[in-house]
Amino acid sequence: MPLSKHGLVLWLAPLVLSFHSANTALGSLLTFYVPQSELGTVIGLSVATMPLSSILGVQAAGHIFKRHGFAAVPLSAAGFLAAAAAILFTCNFLPPENPQEEE
């Protein structure tokens, strides 16, 4: 842990890099799996919801941290990811096995 508060900014660098890497990978997957006719709509929705998810994620983490302590934040995130994965598998919202390739 850094001795000064200014050193805490350096701890954000891996978080920022991983966030932007995940967004880039998500955009690439969207262009791979979505048909050409729906590509603009899907990417537009994706780009429009990214700021909203960033705001709501910070608010939710702050609320969980305030009520339950630091250890609950990563555990809650893991629980949300597990619940989302269960919903995806249960409702069969998985991407097709053979995505449409460009002709």
Automatic annotation (TrEMBL):
Question: What UniProt keywords are attached to this protein's entry?
Answer: Membrane, Signal, Transmembrane, Transmembrane helix
Q: Which SUPFAM superfamilies match?
A: MFS general substrate transporter (SSF103473)
Superkingdom, according to UniProt?
Answer: Eukaryota
Where does the record locate the signal sequence feature? 1-18
* Sequence intervals crossing the membrane: 43-65, 72-95
Instruction: Keyword check for Transferase, yes or no.
Output: no
Q: What is this protein called?
A: Major facilitator superfamily (MFS) profile domain-containing protein
